[in-house]
Amino acid sequence: xxxxVKFSDETLALVHKIMKxxxxxxxxxxxIPILHLAQMEFDGWLSPETMDxxxxxxxxxxxxxxxxxxxxxxxxxxxxxxxxxxxCRTGPCWLLGAEDLVRHIExxxxxxxxxxxxxxxFTLKTVECLASCGTAPMMQIGETxxxxxxxxxxxxxxxEYRQKGERVTHWDKKHIKxxx
Amino acid sequence: MPKVTIDxxxxxxxxxxxxxxxxxxxxxxVAPPAMCYYSKLKTSGGYxxxxxxxxxKGSAQNPxxxxxxxxxxxxxxxxxxxxxxxTSPDLLEARKGVVEFLLINHPLDCPICDQAGECDLQNxxxxxxxxxxxxxxxxxxxxxxxxxxxxxxHMTRCILCYRCVKTADxxxxxxxxxxxxxxxxSEISTYIQNAIDNEWSGNVIDVCPVGALTDKxxxxxxxxxxxxxxxxxxxxxxxxxxxxxxxxxxxxxxxxGRKDQWxxxxxxxxxxxxxxxxxxxxWTIEGPSHIDRHSVIAQNHYELQNLKLDVGRQLNKLAGEAxxxxxxxxxxxxxxxx
Amino acid sequence: xxxxxxxxxIHAPGIATLGVYREFGGYKALEKALKMKPEELVDxxxxxGLRGRGGAGxxxxxxxxxxxKPEGVPxxxxxxxxxxxxxxxxxxxxxxxxxxxxxxxxxxxxFALGARTSYIYIxxxxxxxxxxLEQAIQDAYxxxxxxxxxMGSGYSLDLHVHPGGGAYICGEETALIESLEGKRGNPRxxxxxxxxxxxxxxxxxxxxxxxxxxxxPIVNMGGEEYAKIGVGKSTGTKLISACGHINxxxxxxxxxxxxxxxxxxxxxxxxxxxxxNKLKAVVAGGSSVPILPAELFLKTAKGEPRLMSYxxxxxxxxxxxxxxxxxxxxxxxxxxxxVKNLWNFTRFYHHESCGQCSPCREGTxxxxxxxYRILDGHGKKEDVDLLWDIQSKIDGKTICxxxxxxxxxxxxxxxxxxxxxxxxxxxxxxxxxxxxxxxLHNEKEPAY
Lengths: 180, 338, 448
Fold this sequence. Notes:
Chain A has helices at residues 9-19, 31-41, 48-58, 62-71, 91-95, 98-109, 151-164, 174-178, and strands at residues 83-88, 122-127, 139-141, 144-146. Chain A is of the alpha+beta class and 180 residues long. Chain A folds into 2 domains: 9-71, NADH-quinone oxidoreductase subunit E (Arc Repressor Mutant, subunit A), CATH 1.10.10; 83-164, Glutaredoxin, CATH 3.40.30.10. Chain A has a 4-stranded mixed sheet with strand order 2-1-3-4, covered by helices on one side. The radius of gyration of chain A is 17 Å and the shape is elongated. Chain B has a 5-stranded mixed sheet, with helices on both faces. A 4-stranded antiparallel sheet of chain B has the order 12-11-10-13. A two-stranded antiparallel sheet of chain B has the order 6-9. In chain B, a hairpin with a 6-residue loop joins strand 7 (178-180) and strand 8. The radius of gyration of chain B is 22 Å and the shape is globular. The two termini of chain B are 24 Å apart. Chain C is built from 18 helices and 13 strands. In chain C, the strands form 4 sheets. A 5-stranded mixed sheet of chain C has the order 8-7-13-10-11. In chain C, strands 3-2-1-4 form a 4-stranded parallel sheet, with helices on both faces. The chains are: A alpha+beta (180), B alpha+beta (338), C alpha/beta (448). Chains in contact: A-B, A-C, B-C.
């Protein structure tokens, strides 16, 4: 059975709070934060059903949500592993060995850039500059920046996430209660 | 009213007129080409960059030239502004660059494209492009999607002018297609399979400057230059019913809006007129449509009315000149005045 | 070390909290500002000579002065915290450590401009900083520093944080405005400028994080005093985020006008090139600005020592100079390959082009493919000239500056390092392996 797409009461309250931050009738502005919350709540990605649900909350046409979601690189339009490993691949990180890091992760997890491990734990995604060039090379998992990486350090970090086995998203669930 | 000079032609235009509109008022000899601007669609223009011009003098108040070429379709004229279009070799070189960019990922499948013969990109390439391409990489392709049984979407030919999106926004309610993704993988799509279906949706075919959106009911029926366009009208509850019907022999192969000198439809037509009324008896024929004589469609195309007018004009002119000669006015002066 | 106007007490424990920030004199400037007239504040900023710290260096006071003030139409101050220029990480550092400095600056700025609702548009990727700011804003509300009748002044302001979704282009102010309105980050065609018609068609000022933060010391010390720091039209202090092949990467606050040699080699700053290597090239202001070879970077073409200032770095124009940009200082030692690095940057711009206008949409990808071909050992003799021609046809022909930003690195790399390109083309064996990871997801392996 497909799960019904509906925000939890707590998240929905936050959604409505965010929508009120914009002037009367301009609540479409809330689309990006709401899509982040949707990724948090619905398995780290945006299915067409999820986007249609967001459109219904914002009272806009579904295509307007697809247009926005497909423009921004943080929104996953395909399912991802529990742990989305985003390695910076841009200039400064690259100068300091991001390439070797990606190669190491690919080997270790036996996946290529953009793929998910068979157990659904990790998805590897190379991303553009995350404004952490002084602590290069680096990667982001959920909201956490892992900086000054070496291959050993990457192993250690990935093992920690594997042991926890939980889904990690950009908007961390722990912030939902805090913002009520 | 501000005065603007474009390629040496001065014109006075209402405030708020754009450079492109002013140039069109002067005439085709100075009007820049436009692939995304469409005067009937609000906020259109500015994307394709083919209409760029050089502003050599900003205004009477601020005579400095503008540092970069500007999109003439989105730049309002200022009093005393001077603009170079066809008179600036740099600008023409820059425009050639834009044309090249538009073409590098275009499939150039004109031989099998229904738009060929009435394609703005073909014309643009012919007039402003280079003879050979320097792009030797594989061209971009897209997965085909079906947007219903009336309109064919061929995304590989799209130049992302946004006209069809604006048409849907401004003509219809509940837009279902839009621009997805970003950069050079942006595409016109409905995302999930979804037919574009409302009574005005066929107009996206007319506004499309290339063969990305074509009429499925006309698909592969004929090359456009083998068909004869005729202006016709009918009583329609939805639209003004003023259309152009395209004959091959006795058969009506397709119905489109009537396009003006700048390739823009004069009146939107509804889907009923466009797709369902393909019998001669559905229409009241007005006469052959005016086709630019440089167009390939003009082959074997006669406009009796215009022909008469032309002949009439010639006769009048001759008569006038004869009269002027009689009153000792020099012919030269008369021509100069014209 | 120069004056620390923004980074002072940055390492003090708890400086991110409202209590500690106030212990170190925080919100004193706000108190002072609320007693002034808004016009006086704009004047102070004009006097300070502060220039936009996001990259373009436009005088902030003048930008504030341009804001239209039609009757009955709300206006907005929007902070551009969409820091995504490769090499730049100063705003994240500042917001993470001293969120209240930005909030204080936002309140002062909003008061000066007469805005009643203001927004901080932060990159979605910095979600943890988003939550730091949310918390700080909540604390400010609780302390009466935001909301109704701030500090009893009668002035009321709502301040909100707005996360982005991952798009470099949203650092461009009109794209940021579109994104704030909940749309795709497609830059708008100017005019109209945001000062007349910005977010929701209301007059809007968009300022960088560092610019807004700098308003706080300007109010504290007075514009004239601030203008005494620095050199010429480059007044005040500037945050420089230094990275690449140096011993001490990090964020430094410098007095504008510091000699680049000192910045690069002094232990107070970058601490010299790593492993005692030789300096090869520097990208001084974020990936978009022209790359300069060591000799032209340290000294201008006239042989004068170069300074860290808007004017000195730009000395010689693009022929022999560069730009201060956003202060993203990327250093390359002699082990680095300029062509490879250029390909990486070009791939970045290709990936980040919004796709709205044709020269940028098509041209960035074309340049990336040609560069890739060269690095893949299949370069053609005419490729360098081709690259030069493509970049020249993008530069200045696009709606927004992303096109220029993609063109300049290519132009400057060819201008100063042409022989490296030619060597790679003539002798592919001299290229060390290029990995295929960084191909964009939509591209197939090239067939030559």
